[in-house]
Known about the structure:
By secondary structure, the chain is α+β, with helices and mostly antiparallel strands. 37% of the residues lie in helices and 19% in strands. The protein is built from 14 helices and 16 strands. A hairpin with a 5-residue loop joins strand 6 and strand 7.
Amino acid sequence: MLTADLIRPRLQWEGKTLSVKMVDEQDSSALRTAQDLLTLLQSMAGQSLAAFQSSLEQYEGDRTDYLLIRGLAKILLDAATFTPLSTPLPPKELRAKLFATGPVFSSPDLFHLQTRQEALQLVAGEVGICTDQIDLTFFADRPATYLLTDPGPAWTPAEVLARYNLELARGVLYWASHMRIDVFDGYKDIWKFLKLFKLMFWAEPLRGGGYRIDLDGPISPFVKSTIRYGRQFAAFLPAVLLCEQWRMIAQVHPPHAPGSMTYQLNETCSLRTHFKKSGEFDSALERNFAQEFEEKFGGQRSHWILKRESTVLLLGDTVMVPDFVLVDKDNENRQIIIELVGFWHPEYLKRKVAKVRAAQCQNLLLLVYQGLKLTPNAFRETVSEVIFFQQKPVIKDVMGTVEALAQRLYGPRQTAKGQKAASPST
């Protein structure tokens, strides 16, 4: 991530609204600079970080776009791998032995009898290495001496500029006290990354669909580990970009700004994420269930539409994102939530059962694999419906239970013309 000194000069504000001066990703000069830095880094394979930084200073010279150069270089260095030198003994241990020999001088006199070379030879004989190796080992644990072993991803210049813009936007959030995000899809990934980065949030459903998530920022009075939390908070932004429809508003307090500022983004911004979106299905069990539903009950074959992970059950400081939701074509308020529970390790099952109990969701239908050795007693304290299956859920039985559950919860189904539909056959 970019440091504050590389972000502050690119901040702009008008009134109480903050914006960031992004780099034009199609600008020929910026693209050329990105390519130059990529070439420079790749040419430094096997050389030290200090050598790269020296070459970078020479490249920068007296150019006026030094902020861009340093920002792009920071991004490339963060993605590269520099490896410590292999040494015959830990550098810290070697330094202790050398310093124990006392003060040394380039040339001896009456009061300073020991030279540096004599001290090196003394310690070299003690540890069994030559004096040249001592010079190499002395500060080998300093990052500046690490050698470039992997230059990182095969970036294109345009990708480097895109990441630079993303890091600028991320950096603004270092100074956030509060952030509000409205999301309308991609719920599974949003909550996965909220959990991954251990962010403090509270959420509520929006009246027209979607969810509102409020997060405490790094400089919120409720946050203690400001630096660590700030990095995690800023790192979360690419997860929001995985959604197709979203909006974000943050209250930020950047240095030298005239008080609290508002920073806003939405899906129309040009930022691009490097996070990977989750696959459509987590398991073959889920994929096969969806395929079988479409084959036998999809289209005009039933009045149900099967949606994937389109709702969230809010459970205090955690959530449950069920696998599927069946929505009535003629009345979207008639919904049956379906969660498949199969082929998982004991700890996962323990958490899953706890969430089901906490949800107390009447329109939740659980499909549970019998091989998990879960008995009906495990769900005794829930109000959800449960079907146990052996190899795979029997779709006909599932849909029969869905119809009965929907009628019990919502009453007789009304057709599009307002007439009562016939009761499902048993």
